[in-house]
Amino acid sequence: MAPRSQPTARQVRLGAELRRLREAAGLKAREVAGLLNSTSAQMSQVEAGNVGVSEERVRRLAAHYACTETELIDALVAMATDRTRGWWEEYRGVLPPVFQDTAEVEHHATFLREVVITHVPGLLQTADYARAIYTYVHPGLPESELAPRVDHRLMRRAVIEGDTPTPYETLIHECALRIQVADRRISLSQLRRILDEIDKGHATVRVIPLDREGFAGAGISMMYAGGPVPRLDTGLRDAPTGVAFIDAEAQLEQLRGLFLRMREASLEPTASRDFIHRLAKEL
User: Fold this and answer.
1) 3-state secondary structure at position 7
2) How far, in Å, CA of 239 to CA of 56, rounded?
3) In whole angstroms, what is the distance from residue 35 CA to residue 16 CA?
4) What is each CA distance from 50 to 16, 23, 170, in whole angstroms?
């Protein structure tokens, strides 16, 4: 099988999990290669996500590694055999790969949790709000590149608005609700959009007020995507080079703890809705 020119984050994750199973078994790639009538170089390609792997090979490897976690093995098989071509594929070659990777992670998530401090979450943004952000961050971006970015952001809503919506909970700092990325009209429309999503049951929104004492997490923004088993959860954090996809268990555990601590600093959903409603009336 020819190597992939650009594996997706999901394909890379599958390879990483197979590598972790091998290392947990105390085996070298060259020791496992013979089992599959392969080479250590080919095994490295599989574990890097550059080459696909069949269901039969995933199960053989799991057995050889003495992995007895049935749910994990089945989840890895599903990742290996998934041929989903979601809406995000329309943007391949049009937008940077991270756009497709983010949408794919969201699509396969069993639940989504998000923390935002300075901007409204992407899943709740209006077209005007998203356009204002992209225009500010990338001044001079031609319409041919700006429009696909905005369209992609709006298409991501499908994960919480579709026929089988993914449970979504977000913590939004008051700063994000008050910052006017454009003008009063767009800010008001954005607040109403959030209220609409709450009322339709598409999102559980909790607000972290500016006057909350003991809140030292203002520098933390993240998304946490639940996997079919906790081991396959994924964290997404902004990084200097773009979005960083986190899959190391120690880091995932840290993100889980951070979310719970930040949730404790937030208002309950009903109080949060009332809070947003008051802000909208102020505008």
Assistant:
1) coil
2) 37
3) 19
4) 11, 19, 34
